Amino acid sequence: MELKRVVVTGIGAVTPLGNNKNDYWDALAKGVSGAAPITRFDSEKFRTKFACEVKGFDPLDFLDRKEARKMDPNSHYGMVAGDEAIVDSGLDLEKTNKDRIGVIWGSGIGGFTTFQDEVVSYAKGDGTPRFNPFFVPKMILDITPGLLSIKYGFRGPNFATVSACASSNNALSDAYNYIRLGKANVILTGGSEAAVIETGIGGFNALKALSERNDDPTTASRPYDKDRDGFVLGEGAGALMLEDLDHAKARGAKIYAEVLGVGMSADAYHITAPHPDGDGIVLVMNEALADANIKPTEVDYINTHGTSTPLGDAGEVKAIQKVFGEHAYNMNISSTKSMTGHLLGAAGAIESIASIMALELGIIPPTINHFTDDPEIDPKLNLTFNTAQKRDVNVVVSNTFGFGGHNASVIFGKYSG
User: Fold this and answer.
1) β-strands 6-14, 332-334: how paired?
2) Which Pfam family name is an example for this entry (predicted)?
């Protein structure tokens, strides 16, 4: 069968840098850090006392009070980003067959706040099992796509993907495949995460995964820097409307970009550490390139996973050099996690948005907070340090990797008719 072409027609974002796509992108292009001391709880006794929190966000500005109380913050972020993407797409919901519109959403943890609060409340009580009747639906990871479908009446494919920090890239990959196989005309996809809470910070501290640069949070996320000491936890959501090209053209939709191909792989190595030779990363990028039917020399920019961890950053860069060879020196490479922190299951969604905006505007968002070269990382590579760079961008790769060895890459291209 002939596979359908798939394009992006709507974007929505709730991030540590801004609560809509325009504010998010403006901050990225300016190299703004979203890191600051934690405000949600008293972090004094924690080894890490800062994070990239969503700021100035009130769910009641967007959601009915009664409905908002039935949702975890994970879903608040997802609902608002999803709504922005739907509006941005210009899709007329009264004239569109909703049987052919789906929602496929990613999250690494889901309703973490709800789970923590309910368990703490029970533990502090007298043993009587008093739980919120919405405890389970607020907690489960698939509730956000369910809520979006209920609100808008979308009756197409509807489920959640869970692959730790690769979750929303896996969601986007599934959405792409469902549309190109003719199973749906439109799918709202993306991811959300809300883990900046005591158990989130404490759990990642116990893994020794987080930066502990408490004296200067804004420079704590340092992908590729010699003195990087772990990632900065972030939160928020990103949403993209994917659409069958013919369907989009028929309604005169604005097209941001085309999804050219996707790749998925596993390290099959360790629960948290990346493969030392980057085998899974090499495999996933090669799979994505083959799926897109493009040559490595056609790629202009890679938005890397780049979390600011000692092993992960160096391994991804070495894998890029294996896949792209000499062309690696002609590309731009950057980690926007240097600004947003790591949104876990939502990382792929907001980084896909950054990739698409780079395509549309010809601006590569920077890797901020570079101070000292790492001798393990080739200094001749253009890692777009500290300042955004302008260039013609036609093809972008967006990488995400998750605990458990999950890898997912998505390739976007400039739409050319």
Assistant:
1) unpaired
2) Ketoacyl-synt_C
Catalytic residue among 76, 247, 275, 305: 305
From the candidates 165, 247, 275, 370, which is the catalytic residue?
Answer: 165
52 catalytic per annotation: no
Question: For residue 142, what are the CA distances in angstroms to 11, 98, 105, 152, 232?
Answer: 21, 19, 7, 16, 25
Whether 31 is in a domain gets the answer: yes
Q: Global pTM?
A: 0.97
Whether 165 is a known active-site residue: answer yes
Q: Is residue 226 part of a domain?
A: yes
Domains: count for the chain: 1
Q: Is residue 241 part of a domain?
A: yes
Q: What is the pLDDT of residues 30-78, one digit of tens each?
A: 999 999 999 999 999 999 999 999 999 999 999 999 999 999 999 999 9
Of 76, 247, 275, 342, the active-site residue reads 342
CATH code of 385's domain: 3.40.47.10
Asked about 342 being catalytic, the answer comes back as: yes
* Residue pLDDT, tens place only, 261-291: 999 999 999 999 988 889 999 999 999 999 9
Q: Is 393 a domain residue? A: yes
